[in-house]
Every structure is written in C-alpha cells, then in structure tokens.
Amino acid sequence: MASNFLIPTISVMPVGYDCAVSVPLGPVGRSMNGGSGRAAYYCRVYQNGAEVWADEVPCEFQAGKAVTPESLGFVLDRSILPADDRPGYIEMAFLADDGQAAFSDTMMPSFYVVYLADGKKSFFSDSALKFASPPIIAQIAEYRQYVETCPVVRIDRDRDLAESLYLINPFSLPIKARVVTHDGRRIGGIKITPMSVTVVPLAEFLEPGEDSWVGQIQITATNRLIPYIAQHRLSDPLTISDFEHLEAFRGEATHLPAFQLLRQRIGRALANHGFGYVIGR
Fold first, then answer.
1. Which of 62, 194, 207, 266 is the most exposed place for a label (fewest CB within 10 A)?
2. Distance CA 225, CA 204 (A)
C-alpha cells in the first residue's frame, strides 16, 4: 500500500551526551515509487512533554539514489536539552512532498545512534518504530497485553554497577507501567507522561543488606512504550556504558501445519540447487 510517510523511529537522548546520527538514504530512495521523488526528512527532540528542537531537510531521489543531499549525517549537541536531569527522545521520519503517496514501503531504514561524551565511553543504540511494529502488533493480538522483558539484569554495589530503564512515551496520553522480577520483586506506580521519558533505577530491587542481585525483569503497561535499558555506574547513573532495547513477548506462531512445513523445506531445497522458485512464497 502506498503511503506519504515512513514510520517514525524513536531514540533516547540521555543527559550529558551528544548524539551522532547517520541516516542511510539509499533504502529511502528505493522505497519510493519508481525510485524517484522528493521528501522531507524531519528530526525532532522532545523533553518533558515539549518539543525542544526541530529540523527538516529536503531530499530528492532519482533512480533509487539520493541526489540532494547525497548523505545525511549530523550531531545533536547535548545542549539541546535544557539544563536539568531529565532525558529526552529523538523522533525521526520522512514525509513525501505535498502529501503524495510516494512510498511503496512504510518502513524506515535501520540505523544506529552513536552517543559521545568527553571522558566517557562511547556507545551506540538502534532506534525503535514509534508504531506499527509487527512483533508488538502480534503480541497484543495474542495476549491482549503489552509485555516486554530483559533476560539478564545485574546490580552490584562492590563493582559500582547498576542498570536503569528508560521508558519513552511518544504519544499524547499518559501511560502507567510496572516492573516485576522472576523472584517476585516489583516496582509499581510508574507513570510516563506524554512526550517524555521516565527513568526507572533498577537498583531499587536491592533489599536492605543486599550488595548484589541478578535476575530477569518483565514490564507491563497500559499502552505500548518504547523501552531501553542502560548499564551505568551505580554511583553515577549518567556515566553509561551501554544502551540496549528490550525483547517483546512475541505472538507469532511457533509451529506450522506439517504439509506447510514440508512445502517450505522442498522450496528451500529447490532454491539451494539453483531452481530459483520457492514454493509457498
């Protein structure tokens, strides 16, 4: 189905880090009908419910290649965020000129955001679709509930090691969430206001007298979130060593009817022997 936009992607903008972004334009051009057309790339930064920065770049494509600009890379300076301790998030997308249904595919190309700060380790993270994520759609259809998980979380006082959730709500209504662990610990009453990021320190799972904890967590919420987990110093949560997405509970079928499975195996065998036609596709 033709569309006038590519689905926006969301990335975290943590406090104290510059964000280097390089958007691959080749896949954008190839997703346009006929490989040619005009579109505008937009990038917006939100914090605490407000848009704090925005930019737009006109792009032209011919024969599936970017003409102007030939490449699209830039750095979002940390000073974009007002001077407080609340992170923001970055929303990026492409819109076709004049609202024309110029795109034959609505998916934004995959890319990473690189985070840079003087005297600190650099790290990178992928972006997440703001909406229309196939695994989340299948999950809600199957379970009627938004659920994501992280299989391994480690908190260690002696090693100055901790982790925190960055829960992004890029929508116009508030979201409530809770986090539970495999051994019954929980953090409830989490509220993520519209167009904002809430940080949930997982060191709260440590009980009095505990110096370390290792386990699995599960997040449920009243609406879909964009969750990330940051590994950082326990003594300084703004010294981050890594940023990762979580894993959705997937609703796709794990088994196929025997005849369909047989057809797929035959199709792969034919394709591997150079016949070029895969049965069942």
1. 207
2. 21
